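Quick one from the shared queue. A colleague (R.T.) flagged Translation initiation factor eIF2B subunit gamma as missing a structural entry in our internal table.

Convert sequence to structure tokens.
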Amino acid sequence: MEVVDDNTGTADALALVKDKIMTDFIVISCDLLTSLIPHQFLDMHRSEDPTVTALFFEPTKSEGGPFGSSKVKEVTQFVGIDASNSQLVYLDNSDDMDSDEFSLRISLLAKHPVLNVSRLLQDAHLYVFKRWVIDLISVVSNKRTMASIKEHVLPLLVKSQHQRVLADREGVTKAVEMAMATNPSTQKLALGLSTTQHPDINKTDGGQWKSPVSCKAIVLPKEIYCGRANTIPNYFELNRH
């Protein structure tokens, strides 16, 4: 067990214990309460084996969601999910709770024509990550703020799926290459990135770059209860269930 300061961000906390984590890992908030059976979430992750799988849910109004009654509200987050394969392709945080405006790249829409964007979804703070993501956090934190999983790590991974320059500049590509060199289990990923393999392995249709990053989103159906006791009103609401 590692004890960190209360003001330590979630990504910073991971960096502090990086030497103790040797495999892919789970991050879960201590204030999360859900009736989701854990192995269901993990099985969904195993079936796709992405870089990260994140859990989202739609809170009730009384739980302080985007339109909730809680006086302490989280920043509005626009979440874009490809309806065809549950790929998490867009994240944008807005300080304006009433804002309905967000921007999308034309190239993103071209790749994901069936894209559902919502600001009703809330991040449950339950993730499964590849081990190399911790190394990425350490590298990027030397250049800029990388304190929060929700605000910094997850958006970077999501953007790196589509922006090659960003992935190279921030060290995402290098982190994957280092993981391939040290972990034999990444052989499949190594073949996917190899420039000596058949074009169908490492390129998408049209000869476009294929990112080594894959982000998946699982949205809980409303019949599965989920909530977070991250505010006093939310805590009281959870005790009603």
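The radius of gyration is 18 Å.
The CA atoms of residues 91 and 154 lie 8 Å apart.
Added to the table.
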